[in-house]
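Honest question from a wet-lab person: if I give you the sequences of every part of a complex, can you actually get the arrangement of the whole thing, not just the pieces? Trying it with mine:
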Amino acid sequence: MILVSSYYFYMSWNAKYIVLILFTTLVSYLAGRMLERAEGGKKEKILGFAAVVCLGVLFYFKYFNFFSASVSEMLGLFFVPIDPIVVNLVLPVGISFYTFQTVGYVIDVYRGEIPAERHFGKYAAFISFFPQLVAGPIERTKNLLPQIKAEHYFDYDSATYGLKLMAWGYFKKLVIADGLSQYVCKVYDAPRSYEGFALVLATLFFTLQIYCDFSGYSDIAIGTAKLFGVDLMMNFKSPYFSQSLKEFWGRWHISLSSWFRDYVYIPLGGNRVGRCQHYANLLLTFLASGLWHGANWTFVLWGGVHGIGLILEDLLLGKKESRRIWRMLRTICVFSFCAFAWLFFVSHSIVDAWYVITSALNGIGSPLEYLRRGFSSIGMGKTKLAAEACFWAILFYVDYRSLNEDVIEKIGNWGVVARWSLYICLALLVLFFSQKGVATEFVYFQF
Amino acid sequence: MKKFIAKLLLFILLVLGIVGIINVAYMQMDVSDKDDTKKFATIPAHIQICNFGSSHGIYDFNYVDFDDKYECFNFGLPSQRLSYDFRLLKNYQNHIGKGTIVFIPISYFSLFGKDEIESKEFLAKNKRYYRILPKELIKEYDIVLDVGMNYFLSLLVNPNDVIKAFIGQSSNFHEERWKKKSMEVNVAEDAKNACARHLKLDKFDENGNRLVNQEEIEALRGMIGICHERGAIPILVTVPFLEEYLMEIRKDATFYSDFYSLVNKISKETGTEYYDYAFDKRFTTHYDWFINSDHLNREGAKNFTNILLHEIVFKQEKYKDEVGNCS
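Yes, you can. This is the full assembly:
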């Protein structure tokens, strides 16, 4: 049933691309079965074959044009002009997510950490489980597959928790992320039409937008899975309250960063090698993570900036501070660094990103005018700013409390009137303040 | 499971109930009337003078000097094309009768180009008709939108407008705009933008000939037909513009000849009078009377309506006797 509904869900976007999921699923399933029986060097060949085929599909659909254009540009620099080969393809939704899930499964079987799944239908349901199919979390076999295989009974507590989490996810996505996206799109679609604080505002807004958009999706996905009695892994844990970049990556898109840690960084040697090699491993992992996000040098640069940031942090900063003021300062620094890095992520080109960096402080000589012009040029009035600021305050308050406790569970212990009032208020906020007439597609669907 | 479903249903009912109450309060407190549809609630039973049209209809007709003598009504809505003028007239035809003067503004974007449903703004502007037209007259009808627009409007508008309504800061959008003067904007720049917006839907065949929009032409013929059936008097009119706008339009070398030959042809074929005030020197440089390059302000609209009625209607015996005797 889960498999049928998951495939139906995917086909409602584009029916023909179901073939791709089926193909990748079949290849990884057979590879798993063969790996279990194989011995010695044959295992590596099977693993290599499965990885090349699965990642090859991803490469063809997502990176071929980028690779072709980059090669053409590079040859052009050496006076060898050739036209790039372009294939007209629609990027299949969620391809990066399910490909990584299949590759993770094959590696786990190869390492002997899990047995190969014998039932193809259950394995296919694990790969295509609809709540997390198009934008994660990228699940681990050990966590999700046993749950898919288990008998499910309705669990009241799990279902109500799931609904509450979904409501919070909708609030983040429809109210905050969509509310900010109009300003971000306006500025980053034509950055040269803006200067000064407008560029800073758009970048800060994107910092919040991407978080609310993606963590909102993750909450909705995790909540939906809970309605079916399935526990997906946590994907975000108050990342903007991190006191170091290392901590940030332990809290941001946890399923992807832990995937890269387990299947790229550690196999490269991780930190159990010399310092230079360690830093090279770190940088390589983050460049790959950047490339995973999109076929554009801006994403690679975004990954690179984070990689360099982590290296510098390791070189320059000491242990965690115990004094509150320093902890706060470190949190602000990490937030600012992340915001700076996001500008590469959101820019359409490196040239645009460079323009934003070099023009963001124009006019700062008159601070008040600098701020006023920033808000007026992006068209954000006082009422809108006040409403948005209230929503950001709610977001940061809940995130802050989530550092040490499960806020949803805590609210569940309140009296019935207070609890229901809060739920109704949240539903009303989502209904009334969800943005009308703006693009509402999730940012991470494109990956 | 039963407990879960029962609680969920109770929650949904509570939320819907509160939304309903907020919606009623919003409908009463909001005075912005951004889509300008509230006027249809007070449409006179027997209209004597009325006009249709887009924003050129809303802003350029001001019956303030005639309201005490005649029953007047402005059917104009922003960006409304003839196909919806026709639908409105069809729906409200019982409000017009023998002798009713019906001004049908013909703008430069009225007769050519793509169908409006092809433009990306279509869905946004189409929503307003759910409040004033039956479903069979609405293009691309959607029942969910119908329910939303009629019973949950506050959920479909910009949340800022809801806040403004509740804190008493909303003001009538068109009234506010109507007070402005063109000196407050860069008229040349505005003319350029308006012209680009108005001609962007134009299409051409392989020989470079401008394609006529048959749906709009048929709608115009349909309006004239309804007027004739009911004994009303349709009058085609092109409203005044500032010279900057006219000059921008002129940059399209064949536009004026294409437009005027088509309007004159329709006028002749249907026996309907056509009056062109676009180049009227009393207006083309009178910046005080315009909001921007192509819309009259309150004062300008008052003067234009006076001129229109005195020069066309009251001056001619055949009309003068009719107006005021309509049934």
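Two things worth pointing out. Residues 2-149 of chain A form one domain. Residues 184 and 206 of chain A are 6 Å apart (CA to CA).
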